[in-house]
Each structure stands twice: as structure tokens, then as C-alpha cells.
Amino acid sequence: MAVGRVLVVVESVGGQALPASLELLTEARSIAGNVDAIAWGAGGAASLAGEVGGYGAARLFDVGDVGDSLPGPVVAGAISGIVASGDAPEVILIPTTYDCRDIAGRLSVKINRPVITNVIDLEAGDDGIRSVHSLFGGTQIATARFTGDKPWIFVVRAKSFAPLQSGGPAAEVIPVQPGDLDATGAATITSHHVESQTGPKLDEADVVVSGGRGLGTKEAYAMVEELAELLKGAAGASRAIVDAGWVPYARQVGQTGKTVKPTVYIACGISGATQHLVGMKGAKHIIAINKDQEAPIFSVADVGVVGDVHQVMPKLIEAIKALA
Amino acid sequence: MNIVVCVKQIPDPAAPPAIDEANGTLARSGKLVMDDSDSYGVEMALQLAEQAGGGEVTLVSMAPNGETSGLRTALAMGAAKAILVSDEALAGSDALATAKVLARAVGRVKPDLIVAATESTDGYTGTTPVQLAELLGFPSITFAKQISVSDGKLAVQRQTEVGYDEVECQLPAVVTVTAGVVEPRYPSFKGIMAAKSKPVDQLTLSDLGLDASEVGATGSGQEVLSVVDAPQRASGEIIVDDGEAHQRVVQFLQELKLV
Ligand SMILES: Cc1cc2nc3c(=O)[nH]c(=O)nc-3n(C[C@H](O)[C@H](O)[C@H](O)COP(=O)(O)OP(=O)(O)OC[C@H]3O[C@@H](n4cnc5c(N)ncnc54)[C@H](O)[C@@H]3O)c2cc1C
Ligand SMILES: Nc1ncnc2c1ncn2[C@@H]1O[C@H](COP(=O)(O)O)[C@@H](O)[C@H]1O
Questions:
Q1: Is the pTM of the predicted complex or chain greater than 0.90?
Q2: Gap from A288 CA to chain B (nearest CA, Å)
Q3: B3-219: which CATH topology?
Q4: How far does B176 lie from chain A, in Å, by closest CA?
Q5: Which residue of A310, B20, B43, B94 could cross-link B184, Cys pair, CB 3.0 to 4.6 Å?
């Protein structure tokens, strides 16, 4: 084993660990002899003990209920307490989510250690752990490593590893405290707003149909939704049309949006900017419709149609309907 | 209300990216421009200062090479002044080292609010602003898609997986904005002329009381071992639509048993 002890930050929703955290627990088992998890949640995180244990965590540090606070400072405080306790992990694995990126930033300062972000793979070697990164929309691969003292903090992109259960017993629950946060812990959530979404989740769907600025208008996005529904898939978007307010942010695919790995990704009127490609290049098959033959999206497409979305998509939708 | 905006100056993203052969990091010699991601923060800050009925917008930037052209763009938009920390020893600084430098620079202004982008175009660690907040002992709210300030309180709509949360905290605080939060203004001709004479305070590490060993490549505790070409996807089939191209897509979906 490359290292002795890894701590995985486990974010959960409704009492269930996010897949991105289960992916990291799985990877942690192959780089370290001992795997611990840390979690928080309404009513405490103890209800996750069975789930994280089943993915190989021996111990679950329970930060408890963080109430209305943003979790970043609280969880970072708790981790820095663990590090100071003498029972420090050598590696801390953190998934790339909104709250977890805050945790990484806060923790970095609290324990005065750098962070390596945007990790897509980890390699265990004699000299420790190396991180792998995708650059320039996946055209180049960089390998990096820490040169300074442990613990090493890696922030890993979703879907970098396949989650696999270990069949382990429930983790031993150990309560931990965040310590004194002063003003840093002052941000509180006053209300939640859920934007409605039907059909399969974007990051779990087998088919993703995404639209970009090439659709021309907000109304034309209905074609994307219709095609997605016909293929029992989810509808996604480029950042350009999210920024333009055509679709909610929850649909964004790419570096600052979701990472998707469907069987088929269909890009409609999307240029294929590097920040979009990193979010969908892992799809098994890619279909692109774009009127510009030079669009970078064609460099990753298995089937590329050089054409107008307003011509191709309606015919495609009708043809699929005719088959049903 | 006095606001600091963190403005990163980066190599022109429209130019082909170059890797510095020596250390595997992005080459940052040449001319730098304002990161587009930060134009939203500058606009947001200008609007918040206007709404508050006074106060200044100060830019804070760190760059190894004394470059000010990106800052001039933001000054032309309407910011009052800038602090540029520039020192050769800063080359290769990671996010934590950058945050340490920015924290010292911000400390000179004592702002009510610090605005940064959610992530930079070239570094995209997305951690620098939160590290800055922790160093200053401030609360932070990241991923803001709407911001308002009243009675010394910051209120933000923060993006989440499923929609957004309303989040608030007292000032001083750090907030990071997403693209699309506001529409950045184009600098007017008058603004561009005025920007030429606005103050840009150039500081070195020693001015900030920082030691070169804490920053730059040496202070960053990480190194790039290699950068290689990624295996390319096998090149696909490109068809120019003659009115029937959709048939090929249907056939492909049938081969995959999806229809
Ligand atoms: C820090 C940072 C993070 C980012 N994160 C993301 C991210 O997470 N996700 C993301 O998507 N982007 C992201 N971006 C933005 C990214 O750089 C691009 O700006 C964006 O992806 C472009 O969206 P688009 O392809 O829809 O629009 P455009 O680039 O404008 O492309 C539109 C395409 O549509 C084609 N077209 C036009 N009309 C038609 C027609 N009638 N029929 C067919 N095709 C047509 C055009 O040929 C063109 O290729 C990020 C940028 C930065 C700086
Ligand atoms: N060198 C810098 N100078 C000024 N601001 C910076 C610098 N580096 C990062 N920032 C700010 O922090 C944000 C996030 O950067 P990053 O952590 O590189 O993704 C940027 O968009 C800027 O607002």
C-alpha cells in the first residue's frame, strides 16, 4: 500500500452518501491500508455507518447536525481537529462538489497544506501518490504530486472511479467537534429552492441530450427535451445557455457543471469548448450536430452531423417516434 | 461600502495554451489580460457600490511579471484603484500561496466585501477565494448567482445541485460569483482614458512582509511530473447533412439498442 491511512469526505443527501463519495471510498481502499470517512447531516451522520462501512470505511467521524450553517467551515474545523489529534490521515480525499470545495479551501489554511484539485485519477507509487489531470479539454494529461508534508489533500472530480462495495461491516462511529469557528462559520442558509426536473438524473442517465447556443432561442430547447424523453434520457446544456437564462444551472454539463458518462451523449449546437468537453468526454459514444464543420466537438464525436439543428433534430425526433 | 475585487490576469485564452517546459505549469510570460471570469465580479462590485450610495471598488491582483493591462481593463469599467503584487519569486505559486499574498494585500484596504470568481479560467482550482476568507477570518459564500447587501448583511442565492439556496452572513465577507450573475459593462472611451491615470499600487513580497520561501514554486509543495498527449478518441464519421443525415443517427442509436 502506498499510504497507511486515508480520510474520505462523505457528503450525503437525504441520509444517502453521494456517489462521488462512494467512488472515493472505493479508490481509497486500493491506495491505503486504512480507510476512514467523515460525514455530517441532519440528526447526525451515524445513519451512514452501514453504507460507508459497506464501501470499506472502518471508522466514520460524525460531525453531527450542522443545522443551517454552510458545512464548509464546520467540517474543515472537525478535520483539522482529527489531524491535530495525532491520529492524522496521510491523504484526505474530497469530492468536487459545492460544499466539499469549500471544505477543501478552509481545511487547506487550517492545517497549512496545499490542495491539488481537478484530479481524475490517482496512481500509487513507491514515492507516494500521484494525481492525474486532464488539461485543455482532455487533449493532454498531466501527472502531479505533493512534495511537502502530509496530509495531502486531493479534490477529485466526480466519476473518476467506479464505486464498488467491499462488503465490510458498519463503520465505527466517532463523534468529532469543529472547534471554535468565530466569524468564519457565520454563513447560514435561510431557505432552499428546488428547480423541478423530470426523468432520470443528468449524471445518472444512460442517454444525455444537450443543447447549446446553436439552438438560437430558448424555445428551441424543447427539441432537446423531447429527444431526451424519447430516448429515456436526461436533457443537459452548455454553460452559454445556462448563463443566458434559457435553462437552470442544474442542467449544465462541464467543468463547473456536471460530469456525465452516459452510453450516448448527443450534443446539439454545442461548439465543444474545453470546459464543456471535460464534462462529457467520458461518454461511451458521442453524437454531434453542428453547422460548422470545424467545431471542436467533432473531434470527439463518433457520428458527427454537419447541419442545422432546426433541420436535423425535428426529422430525427419524427424518425424515432415512427420506430416506437 | 468599500469592496475589493480579486482580478486575475491570465495569458489570452484565445491564444493556443503553452506549457512551460521547465516546470510543467502554464506559461505566464508574455502579455496578460483580465480573466473573463473576473469581469462579472468587477461589474457586481460596481453595482453594489452604486446601490450603497458610495464607497470604492479596489482591485487586487497578483502576477509574477508586473503586468497591468488586465487591471487597466477593470479600472476602465469603473474601479477606483488597484493593488498589484508583483515579484519574480511568485512564479509557480499555487492557490494557497496565492491566497496568502492576496490576504496581505487585502489587509491594506480593510474592505467590507471581497468579490472573486468561482474559478479562474486558467487555474480553475476554485479554492483560492475560500482560502483567502479563512486567512482573513471571514465567512464566505461561494457560487453566488445573485447578490444583495443591506444593513451590513450579505444575502446570496447560492447554486446547489438541485436549484439554489438563500444564504446570508454579516460583513466583512468573501463572495464568489458565477458567470451570468450580471452582464459586465464594456469600458467606455472615457473610462479607458480615465483608467490610464488611476492609481495602481505595485507591491513586492517584502512590502507585504512575506518571505519568498512561503510562496512561488518553492512554497507550493507540489510539482508537475509530466504532461503528455492524451490518447485520442478514434476519429469518427462526419456526414454533411443532405436532408437525410438524421437516418444515420437513428441507425447508430439502433446499433446501440437505444431505439
Ligand atoms: C472557468 C470556466 C468554466 C466553464 N465551465 C463550463 C462548463 O461547465 N460547461 C460549459 O458548457 N461551458 C463552460 N465554460 C464555457 C465554455 O468556455 C464555452 O463558452 C461554452 O461551452 C460555449 O457554449 P456553446 O457551445 O453552447 O456556445 P458556442 O461556443 O457559442 O457554440 C455554439 C455552436 O453552435 C453552432 N451553431 C450555431 N447555429 C447552429 C445551428 N443552427 N445548427 C447547428 N449548430 C449551430 C456553432 O457552429 C457553434 O459551434 C466555462 C468557461 C470558463 C472560462
Ligand atoms: N493571482 C491572482 N490574482 C487575483 N485574484 C486571483 C488570483 N488567483 C485567483 N484569484 C481569484 O480567485 C478566483 C478563483 O481562482 P482559482 O482558485 O485559480 O480557480 C479567481 O477567479 C480570482 O477571482
A1: yes
A2: 9
A3: Rossmann fold (3.40.50)
A4: 11
A5: B43
Predicted-complex ipTM score: 0.93
Map out the domains of chain B as residue ranges.
3-219
| DSSP annotation string for A179-211 | ---GGGG--EEEEEEE----SS-TTT-SEEEEE
Question: What's the burial of B54, exposed, middle or buried (CB within 10 Å: 0-12/13-18/19+)?
Answer: exposed
Instruction: Write the CATH number for A238.
Output: 3.40.50.1220
Q: Is residue A233 domain-shared with residue A140, that is, in the same domain?
A: no
- Contact list in A for residue B229 (CB cut-off 8 A) is 139-141
Q: What is the pLDDT of residues A184-219, one digit of tens each?
A: 999 999 999 998 777 899 999 999 999 999 999 999
Per the structure, the count of domains in chain A is 2
Q: What is the CA angle A280-A282-A287, rounded to 5?
A: 60
Query: Between chains, do B141 and A155 touch, taking CB under 8 Å as contact?
Result: no
From the CB of B124, is ligand 2 less than 6 Å away? Answer: yes
Cell 496512481 found at: A123
Domain assignment present for residue A196? The answer is no
For residue A192, is it within any domain? Answer: no
Of residues B125, B170, B237, nearest to A186 (C-beta): B170
Range of the domain at A319: 207-323
Surface of B (6-65) touching A: CB under 8 A? 17, 19, 24
Give the chain A residue whose CA is nearest to the CA of B165.
A192
CA distance B192 to B4: 20
Assess whether A175 and A217 both reside in one domain.
Answer: no
Of all ligands present, the nearest one to the C-alpha of B74 is 2
Nearest CA in chain A to B173: A184
- Give tens-digit pLDDT for A31-67: 999 999 999 998 889 999 999 999 999 999 999 999 9
